[in-house]
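User: what does the whole thing look like in 3D?
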Amino acid sequence: MEQWKVLLVDDEAEFVSALSERLMLRGLDARTASSGEEAFRLVENDPPQVVVLDVMMPGLGGIEVLQHLKRHHPGIQIVLLTGMTGTLQSDEARRLGAFECLTKPLNIDELIKVINAAIAARDEPQP
Amino acid sequence: MSPGKWWNILHLLNIPEEGSSPERYRVLRRNIIFLMLLVTILPLFFMALVNYHEYQTRLKEEIVNPLRILVNKTKHSFELFLAERLSAVSFIASAYSFDQLAEEKALNRIFTVMKQEFGGFVDLGLIDVTGLQVSYVGPYNLSGKNYADQPWFHEVQVRGSYISDVFMGYRRFPHLVIAVQHWTDSGRTWILRATIDTEKFNNLIASMGLDAKSDGFLLNKSGVLQTPSRTIGGVLEPLPLPLPPVSYEANVIEGNDGDGRHIILAYTYFAHAPYVLMVIKQAGEVLKSWYTLKTEIFFIFSASVLAILLVVFKLTDLLVRQMRESEERREAAFREMEHTHKLSSIGRLAAGVAHEINNPMAIINEKAGLMKDLIEYGGGFPEKDKFLSLADAILQSVNRCRSITHRLLGFARRMEVQIEVLDLNEVIRETLTFLEKESQYRNVEFHLQLAEDLPQIASDRGQLQQVFLNLLNNALAAVRDGGTISITTREKDADTETVCIEDDGCGMSKETLKHVFEPFYTTKKGEGTGLGLPITYGIVKKLGGDITVQSMEGKGTTITIYLPKRSEATTGREY
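Assistant: Here's the predicted 3D structure for the full assembly of 702 residues, as structure tokens:
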């Protein structure tokens, strides 16, 4: 089975490092980036199937990174992480091309489920 | 009025800003009433006063002037009558010599002619310088009588002529005497004396044409009647009043008669005779029209004052009440605005805090999760179970924090209102499905009294569901197991429908009731966020409705939601 590549982008290094380890424990190839720029570099070198992206970041914000990635790598599925709940954010995120929008703190099982769903949806034609 | 006092009155225009509200409105009402009465009744009063005096003067003139003219005219008639008689006697005294007059036969002839030409003569006599009656023609035998010691004899010698007061003659008829002294060129003097009856006086008085209630008569200068009077009595009766001040022109004065009746008195003194002509009229009769007018003026004034009082009081009451109501409305609106503002600031603060806390929470979550993963995936970890339970405890706490921050964010987040036409009963039934499990488990009965044919309203389904869910959750928390929660819907009026949620639970204290819509006020220590009711309140207000809470400790709580049928929701407001 192919090992899916997931890129975690968040300025909180402690958060992404722990999360990447947990994802790796669950069989995913998880890498981390602490900013939008770093994420772009990593995506150029080795595009992942899924990018898990925090909305609130200093410098390039999550939404800008999302728009940039969708423009240059439409094949990559993006899961947004926000501090907010509610339909507004997820609707907005979907409109911008994100696959799903999750709120922090995360439930690891839910994240895995969403990542799997995103990978599955990747092969289907975009609506 | 001194400037200081004026200033005090102007002071009344100031409305006390301080002090308790009812006091303030009472002062305001008093001041307005006082000022309004001042500016209406004072001019009215002055106008009435001026009118009163003006009318009084005019009417009295109208009544008094004819009277004065009448008295003057009659006096002239009297004077003419007396002057004629005096001239006649004077002429005879001059035309004949002493010797001719001393002869009674000749005197008798002259007297006869005189009686024919001038009415009223009763007798005629010649008196010499010593006062001795030399000759006499008349009904009495007065020849040889000496008048030397009588006052009139001296007066005629001093003044040349004399008119006496009226006196009763031997035949009990009123008479008066006139006498004239004559000087010849040679220095010889004699006096001619005639008696006249006063019948003619009565004719002159009668010719005044006085009405039945008026009285006209002649007096001498001691106030004794010279002609009979209708009210006072016959000739020589004294006037029961003091004589008025001397005036040779007709004068009119007011006074009271002996019985205290108000009278008008017109009189004049005679210049060449010892008489006073007097007319007495009853003021009540004469001034009848004036009294009527006076009553009318008084009546109109009183009626106007009454009307002014009524209008001023009613108007002021209305004015002050409206002022008070509008001020109260303003205050209520201000309080509500303040409350909304408070909610919104707290919302923003809460959102900020939640965001900030979420990041470290996420780290704790992942670290603890990783610890758990490592223990689970690693295997052979000493005291594995204990560490797993520790990690789980951390994760559970994180979850609790997460639910708190999410609720805070829910409170703070933008509430987008999506209006649709919906059936309130249906929304309530939908909401109840969320609570079925708990109510069955706790044996709590939902007693539905949903109005049939409830018209559909335009509102936001999701928001309403949250409102009902919040309120029903609270009700569920309040009731004991086996309690009852009734939900009633009804059409309040053409614009409003109400939903009433009533429980028979523990109720709230007055203190709690006061803070029930304040954020972070909670009685569920450790469990509640204190945001349920504020959120509910915010939503209902946003949907253009209102919410009221009634509660009695130990008896239960009734919450009523008023919802407009047509949407007036304020969309997109930051909360």
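In plain terms: Strands of chain A lie at 5-9, 29-33, 50-54, 77-82, 100-103. The two ends of chain A are 27 Å apart (CA to CA).
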